[in-house]
Amino acid sequence: MNSPLTVSSLNEQIKALLETTFSSIYVEGEISNLTYHNSGHIYFSIKDDKSIISCVMFRGNAKNLKFCLKVGQKIVISGSLTVYAPRGNYQLLCNKIEPSGTGALALAYEQLKTKLQIKGYFDKNIKKPLPKYPKTIFVITSNTGAAIEDMKKVLANRYPLAKIILLPTLVQGDGAKDNIAKNIQIADDVSAKDLKFETKNLIIVGRGGGSIEDLWAFNEEIVADAIFEAKTPIISAVGHESDFVISDFVADIRASTPSNAIEISTPNINDLRQYTDTLCDDFNHKYKSVIFTKEQELKHLSLSFKQHSLENRFELVLSNIKQLKQQFNNNFIQILKINSNKIDNIKNGFELNHPEKKDKKGFVQLTKENKIIDLEKLMIDDTISLQNSHFKIDCKVLSKKSF
Question: What pLDDT, on a 0 to 100 scale, did the predictor assign at position 237?
């Protein structure tokens, strides 16, 4: 009779049999019981309508997983069967996982895009404006690619007043995402120091075209975080016009190409020259206009000063004095004339009543109580005097008749 196997021995035989028989399998199922462990390993199960199997993806393979696993998600696994001998449990060891029916990169792209949109990374209200006249442009790209050379040429022709500072950066492959994020932080720190002196800087993050795998570093969350946290305005210029990556949505501005990033971030120096000429013409015109206006105001003030000067006031006073003097003279002459006429009238009256003129034959002066009186005013019995230059006769009225 054969000796019985120990439990350990049986498990080891089962382990050897399963791992050699199912060393390479390709299986599809729906995720359940999902756990992301602190160690970096991922534990879960996949199932169909009848069965379930435990799965594990260790950290070495998990770090290459482009998308996030979710309960209920249907996936396709490439891997092998393994047995955990101490417990006699077998599980599917996952080397590679793809979403069922769609590419892993496409799914990872949509998952991260949705996540960052919910966090507010794409909010247009927080986008920073580009400086109108940039002084320094930090470029985060490869120092060996065609992109940097194209950018230098465009800047030299378009706006040579600005300078480019290149931070040589890995833009694809292992370590690219960390290198891009690190250089964004470095450029932002240097720019922040310059901002104390009110210089205007910006950062361009980008590279030339390529496949989705080539551009994938710009779809990583660590890069999105670095762009979002930067204080300096950032332009994302990755690939060609048709290429859209996560950095395009997070950045303040998206450029279709690296060369286009220079075009949209700098003014055209020829336009500035023409604008400067226009400003000079406008300045000269306004200067002449201001000078002319001030001259007219000065003339007006000078004329006003003359009109209100002491000399003019003295002339006005003298004119008033002359006018008053003339008026006084005229009034005085008028008074003299009036009084002269009065004297002439008195003289004429005196001459008419002169005693010598009383000697005319048949004419005497009639008086009553030494006052000349008209004949018609005499009454009967009035005592009157008849007088000429030689005689005076007192008489009494005896009768009065009218004719």
Answer: 92
What pLDDT score was predicted for residue 249? Answer: 93
Tell me which residue range forms the domain holding 258.
111-267
> What value does the mean pLDDT take over residues 133-143?
93
The whole-angstrom separation of Cα 201 and Cα 280 is: 28
* 144 and 215 belong to one structural domain: yes
pTM: 0.57
Number of domains in the chain: 3
Domain presence at residue 191: yes
Among 40-44, 239-243, 339-343, where is mean pLDDT lowest? 239-243
